[in-house]
Every structure is written in structure tokens, then in C-alpha cells.
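The pair is quoted verbatim below.
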Amino acid sequence: MKEIFSDLNQYMKNGILLRQVVNVIDEIDFSDVEDRHTFGDIYEGILKDLQSAGNAGEFYTPRALTDFMVEILNPQLGESFGDFTSGTGGFLTSALNHLYKQVKTTNDVKLFQTAVIGQEWKPLPYLLSITNLLVHDIEAPNIIHCDSLGTRVGDFKECDKVNVIAMNPPYGGSTEASVKNNFPSDMRSSETAVYLWY
């Protein structure tokens, strides 16, 4: 829990409004599947409203697009699905919705819980991504707070690989000079999206 909030400096100035938010959330029965799904839809609506296109490469990928891409990729239960610029978790939740239809047994539930993997560099989207997965029934979201370009290409191990990847890389972003050294010299660029397509 400490890691999730370590880089965040968010606060609410009005204690009365904070109390009202807590009261409304307290009324939700998270053990009721319908309430959980309704809350998840509301949460994603809030995320969409928070995002603004063109702000330092950040963009909310519309649900219709993430759903379509996941449908085309057709991940299967037992495969791992990764988004290494997960933002608020749109592709991951679309993958979970797709995979949920395949859950039939208790073993399938275990596979579902570990099916998606994400990475996010910025603190607020990282927190929002974890929260998004929690409201989509993932008990321990596997979202890592890191720069997905921060590892040398040659240092990846077999266990770091995933079966299916869907992501919307941050166009217009730039990397630190040291990150460029993680890639072969003929593939070095200061544009983040270029690296994430390799």
C-alpha cells in the first residue's frame, strides 16, 4: 500500500466533501456483483472525464477502441496479457471483461486473477490503474510502478514475457539520455512511442 501512494501529493481541501464521498462509497455493497459492476462503470466514466488529449502524451483510449482491439487479439484464459503503458488500465479492463466470459471453474478463477500485467510510470495513472483493476474483481493487481523503458533489452528473462500485448504508447514523450542506452544503437530515439513498438 505504501508503494502505491509514495509519489502522490493529492489532497482534498474540503473535509465535508471528503466525508460525503466516503459516505456514498460506504453505501456500496462490494459483495454484490451488480453493485461492483455498476461502480466499475461509474469509475471508468470518471476516468474518462479526468483525461485530456494532448497533455504530455496522455490520452484516454476510448472503451469502444480497447474492447475492439482486445476482441481482435482474442486473449485466452491461461495466457498473460500485458500493457506496458497502462495509464488508467483501459486495455487491461477490456481484457478482463473478455476473459471473464471464459471463467467456468475455480481453477479458471485463479487464472483470471493473474491474467493481466501492467506497468505505469506516472504516479496518478498508476494509482487509478490499480483502483480500476480492484473494481473489476482483481484482488491483487499486478501493476508495476516503473518506466517500462528502464530495462536493457538484453536483460529481459523468459518470465518477463507475456502472450498478448495491447497498449497505446505515450506519443510525444521523450526519454532520458540514459534510457537510450538500453537499446541497440541503430534503434535509439528520444521518442518514447518508437521504443514501445519494438
In short: The two ends are 33 Å apart (CA to CA).
